[in-house]
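Researcher: Sequence recovery benchmark, item below. Answer with residues only.
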């Protein structure tokens, strides 16, 4: 795996085919990303000057992530729910993610795994919901699970849905939550981040 030199968001400006059949890509970097992009280009130029000839490029679709404020509010409510129900915060967090979170996908398909029926799925992945049991052709018994995304990988819409569900659960327990206007402001001001 190649060492990452830099990472920034951009758009594809143009894609031309050179006379020898090579592609020439032109990227447009938005104003807020130019500092990082310039640092990356400087690192590339340094590498090229030192005799490195080629780069490895990886592209992915940009998506806005949820902010630390949204994540902090989620964890605050999870803690209050856990206290009201006399449960552990981790137990409540898992329940909320399985009830209101987003299913993990790979190439658009849900991530589903099969483990030996005697295995504890929590030893392998935190946010997994049991689907069914089955017996394989070899006679061994397995359990199937569907995986849900970790909260730090949710985008704005997914995090908003998760928070809506947690707010509902909290209100059902008589826990004070933010007003609808405060929640709208919280969602509106998301800036992205990681837990």
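Model:
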């Amino acid at each position: 795996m190649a060492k990452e030199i830099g990472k920034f968001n951009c758009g594809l400006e143009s894609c031309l085919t050179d006379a020898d059949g090579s592609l020439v890509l032109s990227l447009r970097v938005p104003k807020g990303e130019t500092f990082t992009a310039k640092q990356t280009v400087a690192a590339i130029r340094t590498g090229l000057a030192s005799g490195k000839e080629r780069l490895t490029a990886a592209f992915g679709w940009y998506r806005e992530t949820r902010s630390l404020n949204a994540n902090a509010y989620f964890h605050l409510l999870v803690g209050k729910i856990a206290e009201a129900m006399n449960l552990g915060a981790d137990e409540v967090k898992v329940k909320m993610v399985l009830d209101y979170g987003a299913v993990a996908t790979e190439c658009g398909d849900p991530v589903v795994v099969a483990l030996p029926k005697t295995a504890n799925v929590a030893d392998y992945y935190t946010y997994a919901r049991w689907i069914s049991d089955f017996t394989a052709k070899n006679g061994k018994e397995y359990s199937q699970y569907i995986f849900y995304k970790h909260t730090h990988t949710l985008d704005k819409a997914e995090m908003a849905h998760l928070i809506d569900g947690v707010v509902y659960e909290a209100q059902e327990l008589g826990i004070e939550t933010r007003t609808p206007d405060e929640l709208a402001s919280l969602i509106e001001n998301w800036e992205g981040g990681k837990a």
